[in-house]
Amino acid sequence: MAAARWLEGRAGAALLAAAVALAFADSSIVMLGLPEIYGELEASIPGVSLVITAYNLVVAVAAFAVLPLVRRARPAPVAAAGLAVFLAASLACGLVDALEPLVALRAVQGLGGALLLAASLPLIGALAGSAASGRAIWGLAGTLGAVLGPAAGGLLTELFDWRAIFIAQAPVALAALAPLAAPRLRALGPEPAGPGGRAPLWPNVGLVFAFGALVGALFLAVLMIVTVWGLGPLPGALVVSVLPVAAVAVHPLVGRAGVGQGAAAGAVLLAAGLVALAFPPAVSAAWAAAALAVCGAGFGLLVPPLTAASVGGAAAGAVAGAVSVGARHVGLVAALAVIAPVLAVQLDDAGDRATLNATGVILDARLPLQQKVPVSLDLAQEFERTPRGAVPDLGRVFDEAGAADDDDVRGARDRLVGAIEEALTRGFRWGYLVAALFALLAVVPVALWSRERGRAPPRRPHPAVAALLVAAAALVAGGVAGGGADLGADSTADPCAPRARQGGGFDAAVQGVILDGLAGGACELGVTREQLVLSFAPDVGIDRVPTDPSTVERAVRAGLVRSIDDAEERGSLPGVVADLLRAMARRAPVEELIRGGGEVGDLAGRVRDLDAGDVLDALGGLLP
C-alpha cells in the first residue's frame, strides 16, 4: 500500500520522466556506436545511416499521426502501450545480428517513443500534483535527454559494446510502467481543449530551429571529436558532457532574464558556439569543450521556455505534447537532410586537401631515404590492416620507427597526423555554419512569440546573460584570430618558388635533387609538386595532371636535369655523381627515377581513402 502511494506521487513522476528523457535521448544515443555497428554488421553507408534516421523520422511522423488518438483516448493506456513497444524494441535491437532488422526495430522503437512522449505530459502532471509542475518536469526531461544522449551512448559503448546502448534502456522503460498502474492515472481521461484547441505556433517553430541547430552541437561535434580526432568513445563522451552541464547551469537564468530575452540570447549563444566549432585554432579537445559549453548554455536558455510555451496553450496536454515532440524531431530530420549532403561534399574536398598536404609532409620529411621508404610502406600496410569503420593509427608506425628517440621521426609523425586531422576538421566547417543558421533563425519565432504575448523585451540584458554573450563573442574572435580560418587549408607550396634546403650530406643532396626536379617539372606544367607526384600513383582520387604522359615525362626529365646541374654548381654533388644522375635522368623511365615519389603517391592515395572510406563510413549516421 505504501509502495503504491509512493508511486502515485513525485517518485512515479520521476520514473516516468526518466523514460521520457530516454526516449528523447534515443535521437542521438547511438552516435558513438555507429563505427562498431558499421564494422560488425558489415553495413553500407546508406544502411548504417538509417540506424539514426529511422528513429527520428518515425517519431516526427508518428507524433502528428497520433493526434486523433490522444485527443480521445485516456493517456495512461497510450503511454503504457508506447512503453511496452519501446521496451520490446529496445531489447530486440540489442539482440539482432544484421543491419536490416536493426533498422526496422529502430523504427518500431520510434513508434513506441512517440506514443510515450505524447501521452506522458498529462500523466506526469497528475503525479507531480499540478499541470504546471508536470510541464516543467516533462520539459526538463526532454532537454536533458536530448543533450545527454551521445555521452550516455559513448560510455556504454566504451564499457561494453554498442548492444549495451539498447539493452540498458529496458530496465528504465520497465520501471516507468509501474506508476501507470495507479488507479487515478488509469481513470484520467483526455484533457478538454480550451478555446481554439490548437498548439501554440511560434514556440513550436522555435523548437524546429533549435533542434535543427542541435544537429551541429551533438551529431557533427561527436563525429569530429571521436572519428577525426580519435579521442575514443569515452573521452569523446566526457568532452560532449559539458553541453548538458552548461544547459543545467544556466537554468536559473531563464526566469531572471525574462523568457523572451533569455530565449533570444540562447539562440545567439547556440549559434556562437557552433561558429566557434567551425573555426577552431587547433585540433584541441579543450577548445571543443569550450565551444560546446557555449552551445549548452544557449540550448539551456532557448529550449526550456519554448518547451513550456509549446505545451502550455489551449490544446489538450497530450495534444500539445505530441505537437511539441513532432516539432523537435522535424527539426532534427530537416537539419540532417540539409547538412548531410553539405558535409559529404565538404569532406570529399577535405580528403583531397588531406591527400595533397600529407604528400607534401612525406616528401619534405627530414628522414634519410633508407628510413623514409620503409616508413611509407609501413604506413600503407597500416591502412590495409585497419578494420572497416576505424581510423588507422598512423602515429604508431612512426613510434615503431623511433619517434620516441628521434626528433625528425617524431616531427614527421606529428606533421602527417596533424595535416590529416586539420584538413578533415575543416571539412566540418560548413556543416557547423548551416547549423548556426538554424540557431539564428530561432530568433524570429522567439520575437514573434514575444510580440504575441504582448511583452516587450527589457532594454538592458540581464548581467549574467550579457557576460555569457561577451564570452561567446570573445571565443569566436579568438578562434578566428588564432588561425581558425586557415586551419586545414591547402599547404602545398608554389613549385616555381625557391625551396629551402634541409640538412646536409649525400642523402640530403640526392633527395634535394629529386624534390627540386619534381618542383621544376610541376612549375613547367602549371601544377603543384604534390599533384605531379600523385599522378604517378593509380586510383588516388585526385585529378590527374591535365596533359599527356609524354609531356609530363619531358617536363620531369628537364626538371631533374636542371636540379642536378644546380646541385653540381653548388658543390652538393661531385661531378662524377652528377654525370651519372644526368645520364639516368635522360634514359631511365621517369617512374623508376622517382619510385620513392610513387611510393609516396600510393600512400597519399590511401590517405585519401581514409576520408572516402573510414571517416565517411563512420559519418554514415548523418547521411539520409
Keywords for this structure?
624 residues, mainly alpha, 30 helices, elongated, disordered C terminus
What composes the largest sheet? none
Continuous helix count: 30
What general form does the structure show? elongated
State the total count of DSSP E strands.
Answer: 0
Please state the CA-atom Rg, rounded to the nearest Å: 29 Å
What is the terminal separation in angstroms?
A: 50 Å
Structural class category: mainly alpha
Low-confidence residue ranges? 596-601, 604-608, 610-624
> H/E element string?
HHHHHHHHHHHHHHHHHHHHHHHHHHHHHH
Overall pLDDT, averaged? 79
Approximate helicity band: over 70%
Strand proportion, as a percent range, falls in under 5%
SSE blueprint and pairings:
Layout: H1 2-7, H2 10-25, H3 34-40, H4 45-65, H5 67-72, H6 75-93, H7 99-128, H8 131-159, H9 162-167, H10 169-177, H11 183-186, H12 201-228, H13 233-240, H14 242-249, H15 253-257, H16 259-278, H17 285-310, H18 317-364, H19 369-385, H20 394-400, H21 407-426, H22 429-441, H23 443-453, H24 463-484, H25 505-525, H26 529-534, H27 549-570, H28 575-587, H29 590-593, H30 595-618
Helix pairs in contact: 2-7, 2-8, 2-10, 4-7, 4-18, 6-7, 6-10, 7-8, 7-18, 8-13, 8-14, 8-17, 12-13, 12-16, 12-17, 12-18, 12-22, 12-23, 14-17, 16-17, 16-22, 16-23, 16-24, 18-21, 18-22, 18-30, 19-30, 20-21, 25-27, 27-28
